[in-house]
UniProtKB/TrEMBL annotation:
One of its GO terms (molecular function) is DNA-binding transcription factor activity. Pfam families: TetR_N (PF00440). It comes from Fermentimonas caenicola. Residues 4-64 form the HTH tetR-type domain. Residues 27-46 bind DNA. This is HTH tetR-type domain-containing protein. InterPro entries: Homeodomain-like_sf (IPR009057), HTH-type_TetR-like_transc_reg (IPR050109), HTH_TetR (IPR001647). Keywords: DNA-binding, Transcription, Transcription regulation. PROSITE patterns: HTH_TETR_2. The lineage of its organism: Bacteria, Pseudomonadati, Bacteroidota, Bacteroidia, Bacteroidales. It comes from the Bacteria.
Length: 196
């Protein structure tokens, strides 16, 4: 078995168990069993449960950031297209990984340093591009407000899914249709705020 296959199997197993049980309740032996490998290989590749956990969390965050980063810092993509692409990419990603926002929010609360470098680099690249595009169109909104508006409108339904469903606002089997429909609405709502 080659190194990458074993490492990826361990990461995938750890991701599943950390998401289901949390860090404290997940044992390295259980991760090794889930990955169909042995504890010695887990320790060889990652050294400790903490290092493996950090790797899993960083990978999840990279996936989340990867869905919007390239769109935000591309100067050739107009603002409306940025809004549409970010919303579409995030919605698709979150439909496929519904646990991701809660997982990342929990980790941001507990482990801010884990994400600091990734988020700072993304902001330093993307913010000036969006600020320039807003300024060129005489839009009186900061890049920060625009990004937060897009992300909050897209991510909140996934974070609040249990509340939305238990309150009867949306039926469980209709949730994917609900968030998919919101993609178009978010584009309308944000576009309306940036038009003069």
């Amino acid at each position: 078995m080659n190194k990458n296959t074993t490492e990826q199997k361990i990461i995938k197993a750890a991701d599943k168990l950390f998401t289901q049980k949390g860090y404290a309740a997940t044992k390295t032996r259980a991760i090794a069993e889930e990955a169909e490998t042995n504890l010695a290989l887990l320790n060889y590749y990652f050294g400790s449960k903490e290092k493996l956990y950090k790797k899993v969390v960083q990978e999840k965050f990279r996936i989340l950031l990867g869905a919007i980063g390239p769109v935000m810092w591309d100067e050739t993509i107009p603002l409306e297209d940025k809004i549409r692409l970010i919303t579409e990419n995030y919605t698709k990603l979150l439909i496929e990984n519904e646990e991701l926002p809660i997982f990342i929010l929990n980790e941001l609360t507990i482990n801010k340093e884990l994400f600091k470098e990734i988020t700072e680099n993304a902001r330093l690249i993307a913010q000036p591009v969006i600020e320039k595009q807003l300024k060129e169109r005489n839009i009186e909104m900061t890049a920060s407000h625009m990004i937060v508006n897009i992300l909050s409108l897209t991510i909140f339904p996934f974070v609040a899914k249990p509340l939305i469903i238990s309150s009867g606002l949306v039926k469980k089997e209709e949730f994917v249709d609900f968030v998919s429909e919101r993609k178009e609405k978010i584009l309308e709502w944000i576009t309306a705020t940036i038009k003069k």
